[in-house]
Task: inverse folding
């Protein structure tokens, strides 16, 4: 089929929209993913009381989840490049859903660490497969927006969790809550296997939409070895960005309920509304961040300028988190945390597009895997730091100092390593 100019295809009213159905599936899976991973953070006070855990015991359980996430991320990045997004996502989903339900059978810190490890292996496949799907289904100018939408599923999952889990726990117990939420999510797997194909293999996509999806210049279809990926600075720019900033999101996810309990005296029955507000605002941030850079590109900005300008705004917006520990009013603290989490999600929507902007499609999953592993390693180290600070100091002040600083550091390093966002692997 003859290639169609990007502007010509984009202007055509006949271009279909099935690619947004794919985004909806990715959004739903990411929401489920975050319900499953956030539940232990929501239940931290309950489990600490029942099992007598210390701050460092909980931090160790989080550490093992992130260790598995680090291992699984780099493995799934390669697996997804080899077998594709459809099969890769299905395998990951089955692993993490099984692990999630097994939480209901855990009776000790060691058993929780084991099922969290298995959960981390499965959940690590979510973003490599999701970004791979976006790369297959969207031209570059729409990828940040599409990524922002499906990444917003993380916040929807985080919103759903404090709404439904306390009810399930208070009605049926925390063990049943894990089983019920896991079993109910299996309907997604049926929909994914029924609907997802590559654009040219799908019966739901028009020729015009395929032309629009393929409107970027052709890139290589050859497999790119890791040895080559690790030699280019663009890989390290993405990995450093993930290493420094992913741990902050993990901190918000796994420790915000604990912060609200310790600093503002809330409990399982009362911290739901603040958490809902925090993650609803985060959702808006994820979509707005992807929309902003895509809008700037539509207005004629270079991809380099659009992505980095948006990320700079996000990095600045996180800095008020410095003061969250010292605010006495609950809702002022919630507003500060909401701004920081929204800024992180907007940042993440753009950071995730960098591999697709600079690498050929065949390498995207592997680069995402390398970066995700770096982010998980950063999360492991930060979890241990948080546990030690809370055990010895008993305050989130020093934790929030780190959280407010690393985005500006990360953006500086990304720009130094990747000043123009050229193609990382030019044809040889």
Result:
């Amino acid at each position: 089929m003859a290639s169609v100019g990007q502007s010509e295809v984009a202007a055509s009213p006949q271009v279909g929209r099935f690619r947004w159905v794919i985004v909806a599936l990715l959004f739903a899976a990411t929401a489920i993913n975050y319900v499953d991973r956030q539940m232990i953070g929501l239940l931290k006070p309950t489990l600490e009381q029942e099992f007598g855990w210390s701050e460092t015991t909980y931090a160790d359980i989080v550490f093992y989840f992130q260790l598995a996430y680090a291992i699984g991320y780099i493995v799934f990045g390669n697996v997804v490049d080899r077998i594709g997004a459809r099969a890769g996502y299905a395998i990951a989903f089955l692993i993490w859903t099984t692990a999630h339900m097994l939480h209901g059978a855990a009776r000790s810190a060691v058993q929780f660490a084991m099922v969290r490890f298995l959960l981390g292996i499965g959940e690590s496949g979510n973003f490599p497969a999701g970004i791979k799907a976006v790369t297959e289904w969207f031209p570059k100018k729409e990828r940040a927006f599409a990524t922002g939408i499906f990444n917003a599923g993380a916040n929807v999952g985080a919103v759903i969790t404090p709404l439904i889990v306390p009810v399930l726990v208070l009605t049926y117990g925390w063990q049943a809550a894990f089983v019920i939420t896991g079993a109910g999510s299996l309907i997604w797997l049926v929909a994914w296997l029924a609907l997802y194909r590559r654009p040219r293999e799908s019966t739901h996509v028009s020729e015009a939409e395929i032309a629009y999806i393929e409107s970027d210049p052709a890139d290589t279809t050859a497999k790119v070895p890791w040895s080559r990926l690790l030699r280019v600075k663009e890989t390290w720019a993405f990995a450093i960005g993930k290493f420094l900033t992913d741990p902050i999101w993990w901190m918000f996810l796994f420790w915000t309920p604990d912060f609200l309990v310790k600093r503002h005296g809330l409990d399982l029955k009362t911290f739901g509304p603040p958490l809902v507000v925090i993650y609803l605002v985060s959702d808006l941030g994820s979509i707005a961040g992807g929309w902003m850079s895509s809008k700037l590109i539509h207005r004629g900005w270079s991809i380099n300028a659009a992505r980095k300008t948006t990320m700079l705004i996000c990095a600045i917006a996180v800095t008020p988190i410095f003061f969250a520990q010292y605010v006495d009013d609950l809702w002022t603290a919630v507003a500060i945390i909401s701004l920081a989490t929204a800024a992180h999600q907007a940042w993440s929507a753009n950071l995730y597009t960098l591999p697709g902007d600079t690498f050929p499609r065949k390498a995207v999953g592997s680069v995402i895997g390398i970066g995700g592993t770096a982010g998980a390693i950063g999360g492991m180290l930060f979890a241990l730091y948080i546990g030690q600070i809370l055990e010895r100091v008993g305050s989130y002040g020093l934790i929030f100092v780190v959280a407010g600083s690393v985005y500006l550091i990360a953006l500086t390093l990304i720009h130094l390593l990747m000043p123009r966002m050229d193609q990382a692997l030019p044809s040889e």
